[in-house]
Specification:
With 158 residues, the protein is mainly alpha-helical. The protein has one domain. The protein is built from 5 helices and 2 strands; from the N terminus they run H-H-H-H-E-E-H. Helix 1 runs antiparallel to helix 2, helix 3 packs antiparallel against helix 5 and helix 4 runs antiparallel to helix 5.
Length: 158
């Protein structure tokens, strides 16, 4: 009984930074909580696991932890657009005034190596294609993460 109470108190202090930063406004906080929980479960199963599948379960959880880390780091855009930005130049942004709407401006993204109308069209097509690749890459990680959780989470106990 005392041991259980002490573990619960220790748990409160372990979780406090996570709960303190928690907000209900987007998925990143869900990822952070899952990351923290699954990281702890993985370590626990590796150190104290008694079931015959403890190592395998810990390995599956580690995959989830790695996927969550990638999702939280959110470097999909940088990875996908690296060569594109090398080819067309790093984008810079300006907000010129809209001529027929005083007080309004619009975002203009300028790529230094886009010179001609053909360049502009080619860059724009490549950009749209890469945006889809970025979205697909992120979605693949989300799908794989939740597929593992869906398939195995009830086996993650000791």
């Amino acid at each position: 009984m005392i041991t259980s109470i002490l573990k619960s108190i220790k748990n409160i202090f372990k979780w406090m930074p996570i709960v303190w930063r928690d907000r209900n406004c987007d998925h990143t906080f869900l990822y952070e909580m899952l990351y923290f929980k699954l990281s702890n479960m993985e370590k626990y199963l590796r150190k104290y696991g008694h079931s015959a599948n403890s190592e395998k379960d810990a390995d599956r959880i580690k995959i989830c932890v790695n996927l969550l880390k990638r999702l939280m780091d959110d470097e999909y855009h940088d990875i996908v657009f690296k060569k594109h930005n090398e080819k067309w130049g790093a984008p810079y942004f300006s907000w010129p005034d809209v001529k027929d709407r005083p007080g309004y401006s619009k975002l203009k993204i300028v790529k230094p190596n886009v010179i001609t109308k053909e360049d502009e069209e080619q860059e724009s097509n490549e950009y749209r294609s890469l945006m889809q690749i970025e979205s697909n890459s992120r979605q693949q990680d989300v799908d794989y993460l939740f597929e593992i959780i869906r398939k195995y989470h009830q086996e993650w106990w000791d």
